[in-house]
Amino acid sequence: MSHEPSPPSSGPPPPGRRQRLRARWADRHALPRFGFWLLSRGVVVLAVGGALYVLNGFLIGWADAYDVMLGITSPAEVRPQWCAWPLSLIGWAAIPAIVGAAAGYVITEQIKAHRARELSEVLSELRGLAVPPSPPPASGGDA
């Protein structure tokens, strides 16, 4: 018993794995601004911060790395200092900036969602509701 190949289907072949990945990567432009920034540039900032935290955790200890990142302990008080200073800067500048950006974005979107409509738009809508509906057209077949 031999198997005959199925006839070719009409249309283009289904997209390959690489094409699907490219399409998903291009779809990030449809995200809100903060989501797009977080996927494109924010990941780099968070990865650098995470890598510095892990490096400092192994070199100076996890509790000291946490304290340095939050600014509880000065990076000058721990050894080695060469890795504690960048962690301190990330914890002092980058992380609050990301959190502030996220909060600002959420607040801005909520304000936009609840913004009042223009007065002229409301008045035209009310005028449209006040006009009585027109009578249906008379049928000419009554005899």
> What is the count of β-strands?
0
Mind describing the biggest β-sheet?
none
Order of helices and strands: HHHHH
Low-pLDDT parts are none
Please give the count of helices: 5
Q: How much helical structure, as a percent, in the residues?
A: 55-70%
Approximate shape:
flat
Q: Distance N terminus to C terminus?
A: 78 Å
| Rg on CA atoms, Å | 31 Å
The residue-averaged pLDDT reads 84
Computed structural class: mainly alpha
Which percent range describes the beta-strand content? under 5%
State the main characteristics.
64% helix; mainly alpha; 5 helices; 143 residues
Task: Give a quick summary of the entry.
The protein has 143 residues and is mainly alpha-helical. The chain has 5 helices and no strands.
Question: How would you portray this structure in words?
Answer:
- With 143 residues, the protein is mostly helical.
- It contains 5 helices and no strands.
- It has helices spanning 17-26, 33-60, 62-70, 81-113, 119-130.
- Helix 2 crosses helix 3, helix 2 packs antiparallel against helix 4 and helix 3 (62-70) crosses helix 4.
- The protein is flat and about 100 Å long.
What is this structure's SSE topology?
Blueprint: H1 17-26, H2 33-60, H3 62-70, H4 81-113, H5 119-130
